[in-house]
Amino acid sequence: MRENTPRRPDAEAEADGIIEGRNAVIEALRAGTTIDKIFIARGETDATLGHIASTARDRGVVVVEADRRKLDGMSRTHAHQGVIAVAAVREYASVDDILNAARERGEAPLVVVCDELSDPHNLGAVIRTAECAGAHGVIIPKRRSAGLTAIVAKTSAGAVAHVPVARVPNLTALLKELKDEGLWIFGTAADGDTSLYRADLKGPAAIVIGSEGEGMGRLVSEQCDFKVSIPMRGKLNSLNASAAAAIMLYEAVRQRLG
């Protein structure tokens, strides 16, 4: 009987998309593996780590300096040598891919923009709801955001295979681009001046979901055409980010079916 045999640390790491150690990360870059982020020990001036960082940046991979304690916590092999890469489960789409998906379906674009959702479970839940609601794509920032990691894929229940996810360097510039494409920007905000049930979500729309703790950033908020508040009838004054996304998306579905 082998059912209860513990998994080897390197097998667990592989399943979670964790790539540890200098040679392993260099080989992943050389092989063209889609990498979400590379974490490098803060303060290290080693030439090999510098080469890894510069190669990664040249390929558009986000490089993050991290304390060794963080790397130790991420490590499964306890031999990370100051560098850990996290593989993405699929390649990122472009914003054009998302807008083209709407055109191909003959539908007004419905896009979800996540403003620095750092919890992978929240991002996975948003992607799952976006797929179920028929949204054309999800857009996230390159930094200070969860990415398309194994945890996100698992939480999305496989939706990452069906929903294009784009990653952009600047959300403010992205929202301006979406406006130029004819989309209206609806941001979720507890103090929003437009009630959810008065928001017109039938046309081309981007729904902005703020971060778990702070909500939308100031510059992102300033780009919103409408700041939408979800009615709160209980004693709490806020919803989980993925729950807010679900409510907004299904109000859009209701209106578009009407």
UniProtKB/TrEMBL annotation:
Domain of life: Bacteria
Assigned keywords, A-Z: Methyltransferase, Transferase
UniProt GO MF annotations: RNA binding; RNA methyltransferase activity
InterPro entries: Alpha/beta_knot_MTases, Ribosomal_eL30-like_sf, rRNA_MeTrfase_TrmH, SpoU_MeTrfase, SpoU_subst-bd, tRNA_m1G_MTases_N
A Pfam family per the record: SpoU_methylase
GO-annotated cellular components: cytosol
GO annotation, biological process: methylation; RNA processing
CDD domains, sorted: SpoU-like_RlmB
Domain RNA 2-O ribose methyltransferase substrate binding: 18-93
SUPFAM superfamilies: alpha/beta knot, L30e-like
Family the entry assigns: Belongs to the class IV-like SAM-binding methyltransferase superfamily. RNA methyltransferase TrmH family.
Name the UniProt record assigns to this protein: 23S rRNA (Guanosine(2251)-2'-O)-methyltransferase RlmB
Lineage, top ranks: Bacteria, Bacillati, Bacillota, Clostridia, Eubacteriales
